[in-house]
From TrEMBL:
Highest taxon in the source lineage: Bacteria
Family statement: Belongs to the GPI family.
Enzyme Commission numbers on file: 5.3.1.9
UniProt keywords, alphabetically: Cytoplasm, Gluconeogenesis, Glycolysis, Isomerase
Gene Ontology MF term list: glucose-6-phosphate isomerase activity
Task performed by this protein: Catalyzes the reversible isomerization of glucose-6-phosphate to fructose-6-phosphate.
Pathway(s) per entry: Carbohydrate biosynthesis; gluconeogenesis; Carbohydrate degradation; glycolysis; D-glyceraldehyde 3-phosphate and glycerone phosphate from D-glucose: step 2/4
UniProt-annotated catalytic positions: E353 (proton donor), H384, K512
Pfam family, one: PGI
HAMAP family per the UniProt record, alphabetical: G6P_isomerase (MF_00473)
Species this chain originates from: Thalassotalea fonticola
Name of the protein in its database record: Glucose-6-phosphate isomerase
Cellular localization per UniProt: Cytoplasm
Chain's gene name: pgi
Amino acid sequence: MTVRTELSSWKKLTSLAQNMQNIHMNDLFAADSERFDKFSIKLPNILFDYSKNIIDDAVVKQLLNLCEQVELESWRDKMFNAERINLTENRAVLHTALRNRSKKAIVLDGENVTDQVEDALAHMEKFVNQVRQGQWKGYSGKRITDIVNIGVGGSNLGPQMVTEALKHYSDQSVNVHYVSNVDGAQITEVLAPLNPEKVLFIVSSKTFTTTETMTNANTATQWLLKSAIDKNAIAKHFVAVSANIKNATDFGIHPDNIFSMWDWVGGRFSLWSAIGLPIALDLGFDKFIELLDGAFEIDEHFQQAPLNANVPVLMALLSLWNCTFLGFKSQAILPYDQTLHMLSAYLQQAEMESNGKSVSWEGEKITYPTVPSIWGELGINGQHAFYQYLHQSNNIVPGDFIGSVESVTPVAGHHETLMSNFFAQTQALMTGVNEEQVRADLKAKGRNQEVIDKLAPHKVHEGNRPTNTLLLSQISPKTLGQLIALYEQKIFVQGILLQVCSFDQWGVELGKGLAANIETELLSDDVVQSHDSSTANLIKFYKSVKAN
Ligand code: F6P
């Protein structure tokens, strides 16, 4: 297979990137009154505007040409058709099967995955209804009032982000809490106000081996047994979501209460599976299905829309253009909707764990930048913290601005203030303000020449900073499902364009292994001999302070 840099489209994009260094988006807008129509797409419930990027027709043409040359559509079809595109782990990638609302058969190794998914959904629905309607009782016969989800990474971020985003859709039949950190501070704080008789724990771990999750699960067991005494209480207060039935059963969870996971679902793409149980418990099963419906709509769009009108494809192409070709190495996620306050944390894992790699799927060292680092914060809070950097730093940070036409919690006057900032910021980042305008403005304000000369350079905004705008009708289970699936499919496309294996995460293994050894050393009295001198002395210092 031709390496990406040898493709004719790649070479053309490299030279187009050089040409675009001297182009300002203001001029691109001035030259084309149709630019917004050309570079925006209306999906049901979501408007995607990408006109404020440093692109023109020639760039878009070559980006689309690149899609052809890397056979993107064929890879996409392989994913949906259960081929083993997770090459290093020899697995299919079928999180889309979890929201396959058409229920059409998807066959993997002679088995219909759709049937497995439908069985798992039925299992979830029964359980969710039992808990929410108070039929599921704790060891003392009381109904469950609080759910504590114990999991980390993909077994935490997706469900927690969605729970937060949709909290106004909850009827509060139960209260949902999350514990992910092995720092005992978190579980202590979560459990402190709770009554063990009324708590149900979900131990959410695909592997059921993750140290942090197992440590928290063991602490939760001890907390329960302090009050329940009888070990049989565990079966009434713990359920698991895992692909590792043996470990979950050994932990004391009744086999009937282990919800299925499969090796063809990556952790960071798993909120559509039983990993989403806390979402369904919080909102009710019907609303969980609406979330899946929204994602399914995007999967259909991704498979059917032509590449030039395909939102996830364009999102990935723009990321590639900005990072790999223009050299903008980080990207901000900037929601102007309080409910999306965990979105950037969620997308950090989704994008960076998937595509933060530097070896191609052929095993060759990659010489070009792959994906940007992802970071972000609620837009308004960010404006009063780091937007100075977005507007005037030498480092250009493309941003995704995400907002809603209608607020889920309208308060007179608030939404217009919020959204006026939303629109103003992408405008300011794009247009900027040049020295001539700054000087004229200062003069109009009556400043003398000396002050004008002193202040003018500081008040110049170069502009030309790329942004995408995703404007949703309103946050709802369905629109949120759409939004998440857009990013998931964007990440898939990025992986194909960059030629990286998006569905493994070998980079997290080295640290995990070292931590296991160091933990043994922290617990022993032996002098630590191994490690580099920095690490050895840090451990030595830690142990000596602890001993005194
Ligand atoms: O360490 C990274 C990781 O493997 C993630 O990919 C995953 O989402 C997380 O840990 C949790 O894994 P598990 O669900 O197996 O506990």
